Amino acid sequence: MKKIEHIGIAVANLDEANKTYTSLMGAPPYKTEEVTSEGVITSFFACGESKIELLQATTKESAIAKFIEKRGEGIHHIAYGVTDINGELKRLKNEGFKILNETPKKGADNKWVAFLHPKSANGVLIELCQDRKIPLK
Questions:
Q1: Kind of pairing, strands 3-10 and 31-35?
Q2: Most exposed of 28, 51, 73, 85 (fewest Cβ within 10 Å)?
Q3: What value does the CA radius of gyration of the chain take, rounded to a whole number of Å?
Q4: Are 6 and 44 in contact (CB under 8 A)?
Q5: For residue 137, is it within any domain?
Q6: Residue 110: CATH number of its domain
Q7: pLDDT for the residue numbered 117
């Protein structure tokens, strides 16, 4: 694991949350992107070497919609940057972590992503992120 890549925050209204975080961060989001496979639209804010990702559901079936319905808005996941996502998935599985998707998939901000179940990480959903510029091994 190289660093905390970003912190994902589930929001009900992305436009309103963008206003709040623009005031908080002192700058607007550098990117807004829809990830149709996940049923979300995202905004990214720079925060030093890390980022803040705001996520709004675009479908009632998305994980973000279900999260907000159950828990309300708030921190959804912590993402860690890695250089070999498949190697990390194998290592973490061997360490006993429950892997939610064994094959990395395309995520927002030009990343390969995979998730660890919160039950195996003290209640925190963990996302692994690898730049798509780096070929999968």
A1: unpaired
A2: 28
A3: 15
A4: yes
A5: no
A6: 3.10.180.10
A7: 97
Cβ count within 10 A of residue 1? 13
Strands 3-10 and 50-57 turn out to be parallel
Helices (H), the chain: 14-25, 63-71, 85-94
Question: For the chain, how many structural domains are there in total?
Answer: 1
The 10s digit of each residue's pLDDT in 111-132 is 999 999 999 999 999 999 999 9
The side-by-side arrangement of strands in the sheet containing 3-10 is: 31-35, 40-47, 50-57, 3-10, 74-81, 125-131, 111-116, 105-107
Q: What is the pLDDT of residues 62-103, one digit of tens each?
A: 999 999 999 999 999 999 999 999 999 999 999 999 999 989
